[in-house]
Design goal:
The structure is a single chain. The protein is an alpha+beta fold. It folds into three domains: 184 residues, no CATH class; 223 residues, no CATH class; 166 residues, no CATH class. The longest helix has 35 residues. The protein is 46% helix and 18% strand. A six-stranded mixed β-barrel has the order 3-4-9-6-8-7. The chain has a six-stranded mixed β-barrel with strand order 17-18-23-20-22-21. The chain is globular.
């Protein structure tokens, strides 16, 4: 029987190749996006699946409540917690802690790289199943100043060679000896650091002042990440123990409290979107659900095409059903036949969708600093998931037509089932078509708002100079390098800075006029010398600039926003005043500069302070003469090599960096692909309906032409109903698209003007596509010779 069903389905697909092609291409386009999301979901749930007894591994997280009753959930926990839990041997098998305070420049001879790392205990290798490619897991992290590299970091420095025993210099932390290389795990992990330094190094670093003294502070809940592997049936006992520890911490609840909780390893990635300070890189559960919801709607649009065209062909298929029923076929048999036909179409669509997916996986058009489409190998398991998904899509697309067709009675076989009424006076086919075009228009409007907003941000004036500025990272011999580069022909001015303006500040701190102010002002801060103001084109509104004297670190510049936030009436009244940074450092305000968008034009102006602290200088900012911009780099590199012959020369233009920061080409490409796909699906569905309408009304058209109807009248007759549906789609979609666009634009402090003209252009584009689709068929039909269609009469 199954063979017979497949044979009949194949004959029908081959016989009605136009409708079959429309359904297959529409499903293929939507399924390609669904397959991307399936890959992302499978990839997200593959994190940390290689650890032994992963069901018994937990991370301890902190629920922090301030004195006003506001609560936040942090993925981190206090640093002394691990030592305390090590005493709970009756319930805990292993405990380890990560202290990610290694953010440094690492050097080995001529090679140097910036690394993001953590301090780790020897128990890290017994609790987790990270394995060493080189070195001994039991001793790799036991000695002070020992360090373990990730395989990727090791290959950057040493290629395939064994680096164990070699020395690495960390700019801030000192010299460390390599004792191991972690083999890249078989799947992803939320613990993904470049280097792992021994936790036994922390005490000496804190004593010397290199690291802040936080190892014994229970107020360090933002610093460490504590993991435990519990013994069987001891989870409840551990929770009780954490509650006791929390009670001991919170002896003064008026100033806030910290409550320790357990988070299973499997729930870290994908995890909750409301957890702060997380080190995981995977998407949240909420974002995955949102993605799944969006692609499900897109898949529905393609399925509606199949439903629409199947119902449109119900009259011709109805005769087939009537004959089969008169021959004794049961309803479930007819239902099964049409479901199998839909599944065959979905499987054909899967083949085309795989071609689209292969292109996306190869060229990664939607990846831009963020892994929108994870790198995967199409395995048998993944292929089985895709086939199962295509079967589901086919069943979803074919269920309603199969149910309608199988319900036919031979006596009703000549009735047009497509005129069944839904939602008032609209037929089912009309409702589906309106839905498709409404969805397409909503996506077009949102895409237009998205593109206009980021184009507006990229071109706006941030309030500082970004043209002709070269940024060069510096480490040692900063002043020698600065003096040498300043003498290069074409260099106008040179300044030190901790970070480039435009995206992220060096850090944040709290400032107040009085010590221990209960409501301090949060400020972004930068380290820079007195020349930074001039190089970056800032305007000194009041006071004087920073100097380079020995006491310069006790002086700061601030922008106008900071003076207002601190309560000064004018910038001039702030000059000479003293304030406290983080309740401990007393500094003097020497000058006030104009407000500027240090974190991008899309964000509001933040309070900003600039402090002259040479130890914090990371970059040289060179203002270049415009005439020398295209020839300056080789001369700078030559001078750099004279001072640092073993160190690679690195540079970047500030305007180019800001373009990269504001570049949303990957997101625009993704939204554009979704927009193209939904419009294409809707247009193909419309094409199928128009073709069917023309086919069923050819004799009527011929009669009308014979009695004198003009081409214009016939085109209007055939097209009028479809144009009305396009207009209804616009009436429904434009307010929704405009509302979503406004919600999106509300995320930006400075927003582009987006209104009637922009949404009208979007509607005009969709209307034009619809009219071309309609008129291409109706005009052709109006030109046909009536005698051909009436010959059999």
């Amino acid at each position: 029987m199954l063979k017979n069903y497949i044979l009949i389905a194949w004959r029908n697909l081959h016989k009605n190749h136009l409708f079959s092609s429309i359904n297959i291409i529409g499903l293929a386009l939507s399924m390609s996006v669904c397959m991307i999301v399936l890959i992302r979901i499978i990839d997200s749930f593959s994190y940390d699946n290689f650890h032994a007894d992963s069901n018994r591994i937990y991370r301890i997280i902190s629920e922090v409540e301030n004195g006003e009753g506001n609560k936040w959930l942090f993925a981190s926990s206090p640093l002394p917690l691990a030592a305390t839990l090590e005493q709970e041997s009756q319930m805990i098998g292993e405990v380890t802690q990560l202290y990610p305070a290694v953010n440094d420049i690492v050097k080995d001879g001529a090679r140097e790289f910036h690394v993001n790392g953590t301090f780790a205990q020897p128990s890290f290798f017994t609790l987790f199943r990270f394995r060493l490619l080189y070195g001994n897991e039991q001793t790799a992290l036991t000695q002070p100043n020992s360090i373990v590299l990730s395989q990727v970091t090791s290959e950057k420095f040493y290629g395939d060679a064994n680096p164990v025993g070699k020395l690495l210099t960390l700019d801030k932390l000192g010299i460390f000896q390599i004792t191991g290389v972690i083999k890249s795990p078989q799947s992803k992990s939320h613990i993904a650091y470049d280097v792992f330094a021994s936790a036994s190094s922390i005490a000496a670093l804190e004593k010397s002042g290199v690291l802040p003294d936080k190892s014994n502070s229970w107020n360090s809940f933002e610093q460490g990440y504590t993991y435990v592997k519990i013994k069987n049936d001891s989870r409840s006992a551990l929770i009780n123990s954490l509650n006791r520890i929390s009670a001991d911490i919170n002896k003064d609840p008026s100033s806030g409290s910290v409550r320790l909780q357990l988070q299973s390893l499997s729930s870290i990635t994908p995890g909750a979107s409301d957890i702060y300070n997380d080190i995981g890189r995977g998407p949240s559960r909420g974002s995955l659900m949102a993605e799944a919801g969006i692609v499900f709607i897109i898949l529905l649009a393609a399925c509606f095409n199949y439903t629409n065209l199947s119902i449109a062909r119900a009259l011709t298929r109805g005769k087939e059903v009537g004959i089969r029923k008169l021959s004794g076929a049961q309803r479930w048999q007819i239902f099964a036949q049409y479901i199998i036909e839909a599944i065959m179409i979905a499987l054909f669509a899967l083949c085309i969708a795989n071609v689209v997916l292969a292109f996306i996986l190869e060229y990664k058009p939607f990846n831009d600093g963020y892994e929108m489409v994870p790198a995967v190998t199409i395995s048998l398991q993944l292929l089985a998931v895709f086939i199962g998904f295509s079967v589901f899509a086919g069943m979803m697309a074919g269920a309603l037509p199969a149910w309608i067709l199988s319900s036919f009675k031979p006596t009703r076989v000549l009735k047009n089932i497509g005129s069944e009424r839904l939602m008032g006076n609209l037929s089912l086919r009309k409702v589906l078509m309106v839905f498709q075009f409404s969805l397409s228009l909503v996506i077009l409007v949102f895409l237009s708002a998205f593109y206009h907003q980021f184009d507006y941000i990229a071109k706006a004036d941030p309030g500082f100079n970004r043209e002709h500025i070269v940024l060069i990272p510096v480490g040692e011999n900063k002043k020698v390098v600065a003096s040498a580069l300043e003498r290069v022909s074409g260099v106008k001015r040179i300044a030190f800075t901790s970070d480039a303006f435009g995206k992220n500040a060096t850090g944040t701190l709290r400032g107040s006029v009085e010590r221990n102010d209960p409501q301090p002002v949060n400020m972004n801060f930068y380290y820079g010398d007195g020349t930074l103001v001039n190089v970056m084109g800032l305007e000194l509104i009041a006071g004087v600039n920073l100097d380079s004297s020995a006491t310069a670190s006790q002086n700061i510049l601030m922008n106008e926003k900071t003076t207002r936030a601190l309560g000064f009436k004018t910038p001039a009244t702030a000059v000479g005043a003293t304030i406290y940074l983080n309740d401990s450092l007393r500094v003097t305000i020497t000058g006030v500069v104009n407000d500027f968008y240090d974190q991008g034009y899309g964000n509001s102006i933040k309070p900003v302070v600039i402090r002259n602290l040479p130890d914090g200088f990371n970059y040289l900012a060179l203002e270049i003469e415009p005439s020398a911009q295209h020839s300056i780099v080789p001369r700078l590199e030559e001078e750099w090599k004279r001072i640092h012959p073993d160190h690679a020369f690195a540079y970047s233009w500030l305007d180019k960096k800001m373009e990269e920061w504001n570049d949303q080409s990957a997101e625009v490409s993704l939204l554009g692909f979704l927009g193209f796909m939904t419009v294409a699906i809707a247009s193909m569905g419309l094409l199928g309906l128009v073709v069917y309408t023309v086919e069923t009304r050819r004799k009527e058209i011929s009669v009308r032409k014979i009695i004198g109807a003009s081409v214009h009248q016939i085109v209007s007759l055939l097209s009028g109903g479809f144009v009305k549906l396009l207009m209804i789609s616009g009436i429904i979609a434009l307010p929704i698209g405009f509302g979503l666009s406004q919600l999106f634009l509300m995320n930006f402090a400075n927003r582009v003007s987006f209104g009637l003209i922009e949404i009208s252009l979007c509607f005009g584009l969709l209307l034009l596509i619809g009219l071309i689709t309609i008129l291409s068929q109706t005009y052709t039909a109006s030109q046909e010779n009536p005698s051909r269609n009436l010959r059999s009469e």
